[in-house]
Write a structure and sequence with these properties.
With 468 residues, this protein is mainly alpha-helical. The chain is built from 23 helices and four strands. It has a two-stranded antiparallel sheet. A two-stranded antiparallel ribbon has the order 3-4. The radius of gyration is 30 Å and the shape is globular.
Length: 468
């Protein structure tokens, strides 16, 4: 219907590369070269990597395309040096997420590097060389730290190329805030190297190193503590883990003490995110579809991790400001999930309908209703709910709904086992039942068995259906 919509960078990539092989350009004028250079500079890092791989894969370039490859290689080298030098602040220069409180427009990092190339070319050249030859066990980041210090000064002076950088930073949390982050970049850089150890089992030795890093940061500026933790948190894929670092510095503080401190926002953000995740869980229904089931199950998993981190990192009390709120959140999640699971048997029954037959004067029996084809809408509802129930299994015990889940699955499994046996009996009886339709219902039952139990159970149903 519609043609593919491409960004200018993607258009350039399509012109330069096709099928993973570089095209031959007979001639490239200076104006076109500048255009291509501009597109390359504005491209995201992932596009630069892909373009460089495509150009490097074909060595049969003419002079013009070789020039383009050199541009891409130079840009890749620049970005490697930039990302090494300004690693402590790099995640802050991105679109803010739900945990972000300190952020700057995405182009800020590129403008800082461009300004540094204009104002401190010798230092940027040294940074490129160091980044290219970086050895984590032998190299020293002093060159990178020097660039951060120069950038902080440039932001405060707002002169020359740094005027544009400061103006852009002001669209975020401000040039002064960015300069203050750069002031403690050297401390944060060394802290980031030790983060994996601090996030593991905390020992007295590790805690001593962590507290020393924190003291080094606040020695530079009295208000650097929250900023230090913001910079570390920005590097975490699970940002609530910053509570573990804060706990290490403060020796597992009480919620009353932490809630009254300048670091209270970190705990409050985790509690706020739990509320957002609970909204996703509450919105989930069997009619929501498979993608919603994955999202809701992931939200459950996230909540259990966040709850565990709060309980382990902070001394909570039932009547404390955070402890009381967290208890309500845990109860709300368990109640919501239990309500969904209580309806699982009924939802499966609609996907695998029965009809009641009188077997005698006082005996009624439910048998598979095979007079109509399986209903896709009802099947989707059942698979959606069972997908959710399957994917929340790792979180059931911690989330407080393990018993409800086990009971609901037991009912579903009994229904599935009984239904499969009855349909197989109908096929074997050959009493006017459409065998193809019956096997279609068995395939639905197999799918649901795979979700309620495992794939092996699903394959057993399929083999029995094929043999009937």
């Amino acid at each position: 219907m519609f043609g593919e919509v491409l960004t200018p960078v993607q258009h350039a990539g399509r012109r330069l590369c096709a099928g993973g092989k570089a095209l031959s350009l007979t001639q490239i004028t200076e104006s076109k070269a500048e255009l291509v250079k501009g597109l390359i500079e504005r491209a995201p890092d992932s596009a630069i990597r892909s373009l460089l791989m495509a150009l490097s894969a074909d060595h049969g370039h003419d002079e013009s395309l070789t020039r383009v490859q050199m541009m891409v290689e130079a840009e890749a080298g620049d970005r490697q040096a930039r990302n090494f030098a300004f690693a402590p602040i790099a995640p802050l220069c991105a679109a803010p997420g739900p945990f972000s409180r300190l952020s700057f427009p995405p182009r800020t990092l590129a403008l800082i590097w461009r300004a540094m190339k204009d104002e401190a070319s010798a230092e940027t050249d040294a940074a490129r060389s160091l980044a290219y030859n970086w050895n984590s066990t032998e190299s020293s980041p002093e060159v990178f730290d020097r660039l951060c210090a120069l950038a902080a000064r440039g932001l405060r002076e707002r002169q020359g190329p740094f005027a544009a950088v400061a103006a852009l930073a002001d669209q975020g949390c401000g040039a002064e805030s960015l300069a203050a982050c750069l002031d403690i970049a050297a401390v944060a850089r060394r802290a980031l190297e030790q983060m994996p150890e601090w996030l593991g089992r905390m020992t007295s030795e590790k805690a001593a190193k962590l507290r020393l890093a924190y003291r080094d940061a606040v020695a530079i500026a009295e208000d650097a503590g929250p900023r230090f933790f913001e910079m570390l948190a920005a590097h975490l894929s699970e940002p609530w883990l910053i509570l573990r670092i804060i706990s290490g510095v403060m020796d597992r503080p009480s919620e009353t003490y932490l809630a009254a401190s300048e670091l209270a926002t970190f705990g409050e953000r985790v509690l706020d995110d739990i509320e957002r995740q609970l909204a996703t869980i509450s919105a989930f229904k069997p009619t929501s579809g498979g993608q919603a089931a994955h999202l809701a199950a992931n939200a459950v998993h996230t909540v259990t991790l966040e709850v565990a981190e709060l309980e382990q990192s902070i001394h909570l009390t039932p009547q404390g400001p955070w402890g009381k709120r967290l208890a309500r959140q845990k109860q709300a999640m368990a109640a919501t999930i239990e309500a969904q699971m209580k309806g699982a048997d009924a939802v499966v029954a609609q996907a695998l309908p029965l009809q009641t037959l009188r077997m005698g004067p006082r005996t009624l029996r439910g048998v598979p209703r095979l007079t109509h084809d399986p209903d896709p809408a009802q099947i989707e509802r059942a698979t959606t709910l069972l997908t959710f129930m399957s994917e929340v299994r790792p979180s059931a015990a911690a989330g407080g709904f393990a018993s409800a889940r086990a009971k609901a699955l037991e009912e579903v499994e009994q229904r599935l086992d009984s239904y499969v046996e009855h349909v197989l009996d109908e096929i074997r009886a050959d009493d006017g039942v459409d065998p193809d339709r019956a096997r279609a219902f068995l395939e639905v039952a197999a799918q649901l068995c795979g979700l309620a139990r495992d794939e092996q159970a699903a394959q057993i149903v399929r083999r029995r259906a094929a043999a009937a």
